[in-house]
């Protein structure tokens, strides 16, 4: 499958008035590793992040298109997009290419106006799937489901959430040949954004 | 028979003039004025808002100052509905450039693309030209801080200090006298306010009638576009002594 060409693992979790989004750092071409510092998670603005799993070239192009559309929204409305609005935008852009889709599965995480966290994922043609606890995508998604299912607790504070998402990510990518080589974690609270780079099994 | 060369924009008069374009410029001469001044550490834009009625709900956002991209802003004089169309195309152009080349659009290129649009309306189809003059303030890595002025014909030029709208000739000549090449941004603001007091119809400046915006570099070398709030504008007006203490109104 073309979704498994480069390998990826993306996960987002909700905490108490905060959220975390994390991804692996590997860029491969099937079983050969090309880079170990690939960015799959991008900041849209201070309160909304998007992680894109799937084909790396489409990940970058889709992100650039989203920046384009978000920037025009910012200029016209003189405010940032709400996470729910942004998710609908991503969904609409993906569905535009219904019969020749961007080969990525997005994970969107953000904080709303009342500091309420929002997470969602969708398939490559924009069918939204909302969740209250965690969302996963990428080649490691099956093992991520298991790890998150076992480790997740509701209403975690930022530090505990970081620990949980990191452990879930690292243990999952060890069970997947195509993702791994450390991790990239963002913890977003109403007041600050923490960005951390994880070392895992670097092989 | 002067109507003969008026009705279509695409026709030259025997004297070699395009009347519709000249009428468009005339329309701008009645609009609230805007002044732009280049200084060594930034660009200052100031605009006069025409208060048509006190019953009119004033909009919360700036009326004459528009951000085009993170590094470019513009001030408008003329027909606002025409301006909105052009501002929208300018914003889309800037984002298209960024999407294509992953870097901010050079300021002059942006001004040029907008002026190409304006020019098109003076030549093709039985349409009227845009009744808008712009002042563009921006920064790019090629030429640093820049100030451009454009008119309905699609002409543009880079300026150290420029004025558009009502009384622009008077403003221009004061600017010519008092502009200093090594002025700081603060001095540029002072000069802009001074010019506006002299060219505006009303005697005293108040924050309701003005809009002030600046484009400058932050210490971390990112471009910042800042529109002053009415409060900070009032402070500036008092500081530079261009406002009279509030007159009693019955």
Class from helix and strand fractions of chain B: alpha+beta
Q: What is the subunit arrangement here?
A: heterodimer
Query: How would a textbook summarize the main sheet of chain A?
Result: 5 strands, antiparallel
Shape of chain A: globular
Radius of gyration of chain B: 19 Å
Order of helices and strands of chain A: EEEEEEHHEEEEHHEE
Query: In CATH terms, what is the fold-level topology of chain B?
Result: Glutamine Phosphoribosylpyrophosphate, subunit 1, domain 1
- What is the strand arrangement across the widest sheet of chain A? 10-1-2-11-12
Query: How large is the share of residues in beta strands of chain A?
Result: 25-35%
Pfam families (chain B): Proteasome, Proteasome_A_N
Family (chain B): Belongs to the peptidase T1A family.
Keywords (chain B): Cytoplasm, Isopeptide bond, Nucleus, Proteasome, Ubl conjugation
Subcellular location (chain B): Cytoplasm; Nucleus
Task: Give the SSE layout.
The complex is a heterodimer of chains A (203) and B (250).
Chain A: E1 9-14, E2 19-24, E3 27-29, E4 32-35, E5 41-45, E6 48-54, H1 56-77, H2 83-96, E7 104-111, E8 117-122, E9 128-131, E10 134-138, H3 141-151, H4 158-173, E11 183-188, E12 193-198
Antiparallel strand pairs in A: 1-2, 1-10, 2-11, 3-4, 5-6, 6-7, 7-8, 8-9, 11-12
Chain B: H1 19-29, E1 34-39, E2 42-48, E3 65-69, E4 72-78, H2 80-101, H3 107-120, E5 132-140, E6 144-150, E7 156-158, E8 161-164, H4 168-178, H5 185-199, E9 210-217, E10 223-227, H6 230-239
Antiparallel strand pairs in B: 1-2, 1-8, 2-9, 3-4, 4-5, 5-6, 6-7, 9-10
Helix pairs in contact in B: 2-3, 4-5
What does this structure look like?
Chain B: Belongs to the peptidase T1A family. Chain B: Pfam families: Proteasome (PF00227), Proteasome_A_N (PF10584). Chain B: This is Proteasome subunit alpha type-4-A. Chain B: InterPro entries: Ntn_hydrolases_N (IPR029055), Proteasome_alpha (IPR050115), Proteasome_alpha-type (IPR023332), Proteasome_asu_N (IPR000426), Proteasome_sua/b (IPR001353). Chain B: It is found in: Cytoplasm; Nucleus. The complex is a heterodimer of chains A (203) and B (250). Chain A is an alpha+beta fold and 203 residues long. In chain A, 31% of the residues lie in helices and 33% in strands. Chain A is built from 4 helices and 12 strands. In chain A, strands 10-1-2-11-12 form a 5-stranded antiparallel β-sheet, covered by helices on one side. In chain A, strands 5-6-7-8-9 form a 5-stranded antiparallel β-sheet, with helices on one face. In chain A, strand 5 and strand 6 (48-54) form a beta hairpin. The longest helix of chain A is centred in the N-terminal third of the chain and has 22 residues, at 56-77. The mean pLDDT of chain A is 96. Chain B has a 5-stranded antiparallel β-sheet. Chain B has a 5-stranded antiparallel β-sheet with strand order 3-4-5-6-7. By secondary structure, chain B is α+β, with helices and mostly antiparallel strands. The longest helix of chain B is centred in the middle third of the chain and has 22 residues, at 80-101. The mean pLDDT of chain B is 89. Classes of the chains: A alpha+beta (203), B alpha+beta (250). The A-B interface holds A 64-65, 67-68, 71-72, 75-76, 78 and B 61, 67-69, 88, 91-92, 95-96, 98-99, 102.
